[in-house]
Automatic annotation (TrEMBL), chain A:
Gene symbol of the encoding locus: rnfD
UniProt KW Hydrolase keyword: no
Membrane-traversing stretches: 20-38, 95-113, 125-144, 207-224, 231-250, 256-276, 288-305, 311-329
Cofactor annotation: FMN
Organism: Modicisalibacter muralis
EC number(s) given by UniProt: 7.-.-.-
Subcellular location(s) of the protein: Cell inner membrane
UniProt cross-references to InterPro entries, sorted A to Z: NqrB/RnfD, RnfD_bac
Lineage: Bacteria, Pseudomonadati, Pseudomonadota, Gammaproteobacteria, Oceanospirillales
Protein name per the record: Ion-translocating oxidoreductase complex subunit D
Keywords: Cell inner membrane, Cell membrane, Electron transport, Flavoprotein, FMN, Membrane, Phosphoprotein, Translocase, Transmembrane, Transmembrane helix, Transport
UniProtKB/TrEMBL annotation, chain B:
Protein name, per record: Ion-translocating oxidoreductase complex subunit C
Enzyme Commission no: 7.-.-.-
Xref: Pfam families: Complex1_51K, Fer4_7, RnfC_N, SLBB
Region (Disordered): 1-21, 481-511, 535-555, 573-592
Keywords tagged on the record: 4Fe-4S, Cell inner membrane, Cell membrane, Electron transport, Iron, Iron-sulfur, Membrane, Metal-binding, Repeat, Translocase, Transport
Polar residues: compositionally biased ranges: 581-592
Enzyme class: translocase
Organism, as annotated: Modicisalibacter muralis
Length: 356, 592
């Protein structure tokens, strides 16, 4: 008779990392659909090609590292990174841009650090930041909101042509993002005058607002399924609203309001889908509050003082640096202790000393 | 006041109904029992019997050794056929199986003339005289508990007699009957309460008196309505003796509410300090089974030779609870419950959360064995392969001790033990809630245990080095003392010969006085050191404080201090003699 030997616990909840990632993928659908609806086929091509590249690159590196392919690919994490980078890239991005981004994300930021769970930085945002710095021109040409089937919309064939580099989108096909446009508002022009001048292709603001709300819906699903906790989104968005309100109160003619900051760019998407990446985020609940607030502050600082119109990627990456520090100072109070431990006070147990 | 609660916790499928449908019955007497000498925490018991000796049920066959240990009794009547090593379940479920010295008893068949065809097995009892606990004094009761080998039957196996003496060190106001039984599958306490509620409450009163507690709280999860009903009935019928308040406290079903620390928090809103005991906050916890066994030992004079064990799992045709003799081979129990061997995939002792898988059904039932789960492979499937931690925080949400399991895992895996300690590794109660919810199927607690073991090993190593240093110091002190005494003798001899010591080595009178002063100070210091060492030794050698190695070490330190004192005494005496010597010399020389 052979009895199964297993370490405790003998019973386990029926969950798996792959399942968690599947829920994340599912939660991105409303956002992707909305973005595609307004900005055309390019979004879908981005998402699919980036996800495909992600899986292919992960498989390649796993083979190089002689790791089991099936088990690792089934955790769906490369797929999630691909989708998240794909939706962040401007529609009609050429294939090489996506490929370079995915190599940075999967190969450099993730696998070189040891694969899933070992990356100190958010892979998708590493890819995005690299592209934004290296290829600023294609990265800042967002699509005009011509929709999937509208009179001015690019057909699927045309979109594929842009993707393959056979043609490049006409100027009429592209436009600035609201954040970008507002950033480049001349100093002499008041905010009200600026918006009255219709600086963006018609429907742009509406498209961005709708996309942001769709991401919010996806985020709500993640919260409901307890894939993410409320701490990071709330503290990040809360910090942004607070700072935006203060800035607008100080000078309403040159600063946009909190609603514009929340819905005009990647704030909602970043708050629910990027900053909440558990691998690179702070650990404890309290730590997550600090982490999220830090991202929110950095986003607002870069948006108003920096050269980049949106800043979710940089803010997230900067706060990724701070995570180990945050983790040491935000431990919860353990049962039986009068107060939580803070900072690093370790007594060194030296290996060499013990061995002599 | 906000209702006391603990954070985290999980709700695994309970699966208790499997074993509560059948009433509690007695398992048939085993033909042979295997009684390990280590069924408790502490030192193994020492065998008192020889191979070939006849023993009666209830006879002491192995005597407790040292402060923390427990007697072992013959659980059937028969002949000791062997005293040898066998694989046995370890008293601590975390360890699982190990080999230990066992006394094997072969049962004796009854006389043939009684004959009803099949020979009936003899069960001849050797009982201790019954005691009325209300009229017996504490010392008698504690002696009885020690004699009867009662240990904590909830799983820890801590000798109850030691726990009953808690008063010597701690003031206890509350006795908690831990009937939460939060692990899935297990129903041994549930069935014990349904059947023996009266005796269990009586046992609780006995322990409450021994501990000096003012109230008894019975903590029970609300998924045991029958047991709660039985307890209510008992509490209604029992006259309140005015001194002791017995309260039934239902708690919501949530694993691990039966964890000692969690239950203390739930019922009293007190937190047991880190690395401390419930007694530190005036609480004593007992398992219902232990209380029952203790009462039987006192009232009926029956030592601990049987226990209630849950036999459950889908590989059993007739799951239920049985009262079985300690040492019964598990396969006999499983066969009694209708084991279908072809369906058995996993045999677990304890619950599915903290229990261990056993490799064989030939192991004996031990005092701490509260449950045997004969599971099919569909019921408790093999663990899926471990995946990387994505730090999703599910474990943090489930942790009842407010730890950060994902960080502990990280540090344990990287063998950064100092950081793991900083993140309170030793406050982990190993309830496995984190591993249960982990989507990456990481056996988190295994990592923590490995880390804890490694830290303990290092501490042990450091301890040994310290030990060696103390022994070395003792040797140095002894040599110094011998040298000083020799010196003193030599001086005394030279004075007796009236031969003035050579002038070169003779210090001037003032120098001598200074030296004596110094020596006096040294003597006082050495005396203080001796006193201090004596005090430490006396404190530590109080019952149950620390291990034997510590005592040895402290004795060495005391001896060192004494050697030092003797050496200073000798030097001082020599110096004083010298002063007198020079003085007489001076007198001798003065008149000229």
């Amino acid at each position: 008779m052979s009895l199964m030997h297993a370490s405790s616990p003998q019973a386990r909840a029926a969950t798996s990392t792959g399942q968690v990632m599947r829920w994340v993928l599912l939660a991105t659908l409303p956002g992707i659909a909305t973005q595609a609806w307004f900005f055309g086929w390019g979004t879908l091509i981005n998402v699919l090609s980036a996800a495909g590249a992600g899986v292919a690159l992960e498989a390649l590196v796993l083979r190089l590292r002689s790791r089991p392919l099936g088990l690792t690919l089934r955790d769906n994490s490369a797929l999630v990174s691909g989708v998240l980078l794909g939706v962040s890239l401007p529609p009609f991005a050429p294939w090489w841009l996506i490929l370079v981004g995915m190599v940075a994300a999967i190969v450099v930021a993730k696998q070189l650090f040891g694969g899933l769970g070992h990356n100190p930085f958010n892979p998708a945002m590493v890819g995005y930041a690299l592209l934004l710095i290296a290829f600023p021109v294609p990265m800042t040409q967002w699509a005009a909101p011509h929709g999937l089937f509208g009179p001015d919309a690019s057909s699927l064939g045309e979109s594929l042509g842009y993707f393959l580099g056979l043609a490049s989108p006409a100027d009429a096909m592209t436009g600035a993002t609201p954040l970008d446009a507002f950033k480049h508002k001349p100093q002499a022009v008041l905010a009200s005058e600026f918006w009255a001048g219709e600086p963006l292709p018609p429907g742009t603001l509406n498209a961005w607002h709708s996309a942001a709300l769709a991401w919010l819906a996806g985020g709500a699903l993640l919260l409901f399924k307890r894939i993410i906790s409320w701490h990071i989104p709330l503290s990040m968005l809360g910090a942004m609203v607070l700072i935006a309100t203060l800035m607008m109160a100080s000078d309403p003619s040159h600063h946009a309001g909190p609603l514009f900051h929340l819905l005009g760019g990647a704030a909602i998407f970043g708050a629910f889908f990027i900053a909440t990446d558990p691998v690179s985020a702070a650990t404890s609940r309290k730590g997550k509050l600090y982490y999220g607030a830090g991202i929110g502050v950095l986003v607002m600082v870069i948006r108003s003082l920096g050269t980049y119109p949106d800043a979710v990627a940089f803010a997230v990456l900067l706060m990724n640096f701070a995570v180990p520090f945050i983790d040491y100072y935000t431990q919860p109070r353990t049962y039986g202790h009068s107060r939580p431990n803070r900072g690093i006070k370790v007594k060194r147990i030296d290996d060499d000393e013990g061995a002599q | 006041m906000a209702k006391a609660s603990f954070p985290g916790g999980i709700h695994p499928p309970e699966r208790k109904a499997l074993s509560t449908r059948a009433p509690l019955v007695r398992a048939p007497l085993p033909r042979r029992v295997m009684l390990p000498l280590t069924q408790h925490i502490g030192a193994p018991a020492e065998p008192l019997v020889n191979v070939g000796q006849r023993v009666r049920t209830g006879e002491v066959i192995a005597r407790a050794q040292g402060m923390i240990s427990a007697n072992v009794h013959a659980s059937i009547t028969g002949i000791v056929s062997a005293i040898e090593e066998h694989p046995v379940p370890h008293p601590s479920a975390a360890v699982g199986e190990c080999r230990a010295l066992c006394i094997v008893i072969d049962g004796e068949s009854g006389n043939a003339d009684e004959g009803h065809g099949e020979l009936k097995q003899k069960d001849e009892w050797l009982r201790m005289p019954p005691l009325d606990w209300r009229s017996s004094d504490d010392a008698t009761l504690i002696a009885r508990l020690r004699e009867s080998g009662v240990v904590g039957l909830g799983g820890a196996g801590f000798p109850s007699a030691v726990k009953a003496q808690v008063r010597q060190r701690h003031a206890i106001d509350t006795l908690i009957v831990n009937a939460a039984e939060c692990e899935p599958y297990i129903t041994a306490d549930d069935m014990a309460l349904r059947t023996y509620a009266n005796d269990i409450i009586e046992g609780a009163r006995l322990f409450a008196r021994l501990a000096g507690a003012e109230r008894i709280l019975v903590g029970i999860e609300d998924n045991k309505p029958e047991a709660i009903g039985a307890l209510r009935q008992v509490l209604k019928n029992q006259p309140d003796d005015g001194m002791l308040l017995v309260t039934l406290k239902e708690v919501a079903t949530r694993y691990p509410s039966g964890g000692e620390r969690q239950l203390v928090q739930l019922l009293t809103n007190r937190e047991v300090p880190s690395l401390g005991l419930p007694a530190d906050v005036g609480v004593l916890c007992h398992n219902p089974g232990t209380l029952l066994a203790a009462l039987r030992a006192v009232r009926d004079g029956e030592p601990l030779i049987s226990r209630i064990v849950t036999l459950t799992g889908e590989a059993l045709a007739r799951p239920g609870n049985v009262e079985a003799r300690i040492g019964t081979p598990m396969h006999e129990l499983l066969a009694f419950a209708g084991l279908q061997p072809e369906r058995l995939a996993k045999l677990i002792m304890g619950g599915p959360m903290m229990g261990v898988t056993l490799d064989s059904t030939a192991l004996p039932l031990v005092k701490t064995g509260n449950c045997l789960i004969a599971a099919t492979s569909e019921e408790l499937p093999p663990t899926p392969p471990e995946q990387p931690c994505i730090r999703c925080g599910a474990c943090e949400t489930a942790c009842p001790a407010s730890l950060l399991p994902q960080q502990l895992y990280w540090f344990s895996k990287g063998r950064e033990h100092d950081k793991a300690e900083l993140f309170n590794l030793f406050d982990c109660i190993e309830c496995e809630a984190c591993a249960y919810v982990c989507p990456s199927h990481i056996p988190l607690v295994q990592y923590y245990r490995a880390s804890k073991n490694e830290i303990h090993a290092r501490e042990h190593e450091a301890h040994r080095a310290e030990h060696a240093r103390h022994r070395f110091e003792f040797r140095q002190a002894r040599l110094a003392r011998e040298e000083a005494e020799k010196q003193a003798k030599r001086q005394a001899r030279s004075r007796q010969l009236k031969k003035p010591p050579p002038a070169t080595s003779q210090p001037a009178g003032d120098d001598l006085q200074a030296q004596i002063k110094k020596l006096r100070i040294a003597q006082a210091a050495a005396r203080a050191a001796v006193k201090k060492a004596e005090k430490t030794l006396a404190r530590v050698s109080e019952p149950g404080q620390s291990g034997a190695t510590d005592l040895d070490d402290l004795e060495t330190q005391l001896a060192t201090a004494r050697e030092n004192l003797q050496a200073t005494d000798a030097r001082l005496a020599a110096a004083q003699a010298q002063v007198q010597g020079t003085a007489t010399n001076d007198q001798d020389t003065q008149p000229r």
